[in-house]
Amino acid sequence: MPLSSLHTIYLTLSILIAWFWSSNSSLNPYNLQLTAALTLLYFGFKFFSRFSNQKALNMPSTLILNTICLLLVFSTGGLVSPLFFLLDLLFFAIALLFEPVQAAVASFLIVFIFSSQNYSSLNTDKIINLFSLILMTPIAVIFSRNFLEVLESKGKIKVLETALHETEAESLLWISRQAKPSLASVLNSTTDLVMYFNSKGRELLLPPAIVEKLKSIQTDMITLYSSANSLEKTIENESDKIKL
Hints:
Elements: H1 3-23, H2 31-48, H3 58-75, H4 85-97, H5 100-117, H6 124-200, H7 208-243
Helix pairs in contact: 1-3, 1-5, 2-3, 3-4, 4-5, 4-6, 5-6, 6-7
């Protein structure tokens, strides 16, 4: 079963259990005790999440938080509860910790419960609170989606930075281990030839143009070797700037 479907099922059960507990006359007096126990359980999950997989404990801790908020609201007046604002915050938490669609599911179910409970006694305050829940739902969904997109973008940036660092490291290794030694070897050989031809002078039956060409190659090799040094230093400096 997809994880999103599991979240929907567990979230629905959490809401229904909180509503049933608060509506039951024999269980309602123990709302405070249940809320305290769930609060301790919530902080217990948060404590152990530091030593284990954070994502694995997100679902139970979010469900516990959902149940606590609903118990507080249901037991302090429901639609006219002074803690009604907790539901708005709860939708944001559900959208961020589960999926954005779960906030819509929770909103629909909670609005349905409140509407069915207060159908015959709706007044202006209750209607305003109901509409506030309905209006808060798309805001929570949009906010969570934008937040997740930002996190995804940051993840892509980190991947690009890692790839850039790897490329810089490979470039530095290639310059220091292959390019510069090869250039130095060719430059030394060319310099030896030029010095040899200069020492022999006219004893060698070589056209002057060939000797001049060798000198030109020697000059180009010196320039190329200097450029390799400059490139190596530039890459190192840019890498240090990125790290800072």
